[in-house]
Automatic annotation (TrEMBL):
<keyword id="KW-1005">Bacterial flagellum biogenesis</keyword>
<dbReference type="GO" id="GO:0045893">
    <property type="term" value="P:positive regulation of DNA-templated transcription"/>
</dbReference>
<feature type="binding site">
    <location>
        <position position="160"/>
    </location>
    <ligand>
        <name>Zn(2+)</name>
    </ligand>
</feature>
<dbReference type="GO" id="GO:0005737">
    <property type="term" value="C:cytoplasm"/>
</dbReference>
<keyword id="KW-0010">Activator</keyword>
<dbReference type="GO" id="GO:0003677">
    <property type="term" value="F:DNA binding"/>
</dbReference>
<keyword id="KW-0963">Cytoplasm</keyword>
<feature type="binding site">
    <location>
        <position position="157"/>
    </location>
    <ligand>
        <name>Zn(2+)</name>
    </ligand>
</feature>
<dbReference type="GO" id="GO:0044781">
    <property type="term" value="P:bacterial-type flagellum organization"/>
</dbReference>
<keyword id="KW-0862">Zinc</keyword>
<keyword id="KW-0238">DNA-binding</keyword>
<comment type="subunit">
    <text>Heterohexamer composed of two FlhC and four FlhD subunits. Each FlhC binds a FlhD dimer, forming a heterotrimer, and a hexamer assembles by dimerization of two heterotrimers.</text>
</comment>
<feature type="binding site">
    <location>
        <position position="140"/>
    </location>
    <ligand>
        <name>Zn(2+)</name>
    </ligand>
</feature>
<comment type="function">
    <text>Functions in complex with FlhD as a master transcriptional regulator that regulates transcription of several flagellar and non-flagellar operons by binding to their promoter region. Activates expression of class 2 flagellar genes, including fliA, which is a flagellum-specific sigma factor that turns on the class 3 genes. Also regulates genes whose products function in a variety of physiological pathways.</text>
</comment>
<dbReference type="Pfam" id="PF05280">
    <property type="entry name" value="FlhC"/>
</dbReference>
<keyword id="KW-0804">Transcription</keyword>
<dbReference type="GO" id="GO:1902208">
    <property type="term" value="P:regulation of bacterial-type flagellum assembly"/>
</dbReference>
Length: 189
């Protein structure tokens, strides 16, 4: 790290700490701070008490268009777009602030935490690379995440047209969002 400023380093650690507390995976920390991987791993262990999960992020864009994830992802991206437009924040700061508002919203409404911070970050990247887009539902006028390649001039969202299989929440996803489940506990400090 070339940056010698203590203040700059303190800010980096503060940012990384906040991201870890919100459930971010190591890849998110590496992409958004200038701290070395080694230091990030140490920081992660100090905060969580376990090593960060190993391996690549398994996230594909299809997850964001399945029913329940789509409702949560769309909620998040509406908050995010609002923040970018009116609160004049961007990048990881916009993601953190929007994610906190998303958490507040689901806590108030007693909904499960379907969207992890890592997924929220991945979602923004999919939108920036135009793999995913936002389409307006013709029935409720809400904005929802869709595949960019799909024709959505007549998009009807998952809330206006609830599929019959919607009630069956996949257990795998519920475990995934806990974020601690795949940790390498053997090497925990
Ligand atoms: Zn709708």
């Amino acid at each position: 790290m070339k940056e010698k400023s203590l203040l700059s380093e303190a800010r980096q650690i503060q940012l990384a700490t906040e991201l870890v507390k919100l459930g971010a995976r190591l890849q998110v920390l590496e992409a958004n701070t200038k701290l070395s991987r080694e230091r990030l791993v140490r920081l992660y262990k100090e905060i969580k008490g376990v090593s960060p999960p190993k391996g690549m992020l398994p996230y594909s864009e299809d997850w964001f268009t399945s029913w329940q994830p789509n409702v949560h992802s769309s909620l998040f991206i509406n908050i995010y777009n609002y923040m970018v437009k009116y609160a004049h924040v961007q990048g990881i700061d916009a993601i953190i602030r929007s994610y906190k508002l998303y958490l507040e919203h689901i806590e108030i409404n007693q909904l499960p935490r379907v969207l992890s911070l890592t997924r929220a970050w991945t979602l923004v990247r999919f939108l920036e690379s135009k793999v995913l887009s936002v389409a307006t539902c013709v029935e409720c006028n809400g904005n929802f995440i869709v595949h960019s390649l799909e024709i959505h001039s007549h998009h009807v969202c998952g809330l206006c047209h609830v599929p019959s299989r919607a009630g069956k929440t996949k257990k795998v996803e519920a475990v995934e969002t806990v974020d601690m489940g795949h940790g390498d506990h053997e090497h925990a400090a």
